[in-house]
Amino acid sequence: MPRPLWATDLGLLHASRRAVEEAAAGRTFSVVNPDVERARQAVLRRARYAGVLVRTRAIPGGLLVLPPRMFDTVPESGGMMDAGTTEGAGMKGEIANRVEKAMRLADVLQGVGERAGLPPASVADMARTMSPQDWALLASGAGERRPSEQTTNMVVTMLASRARDPFEGLA
Question: pTM score, two decimals?
Answer without folding.
Answer: 0.44
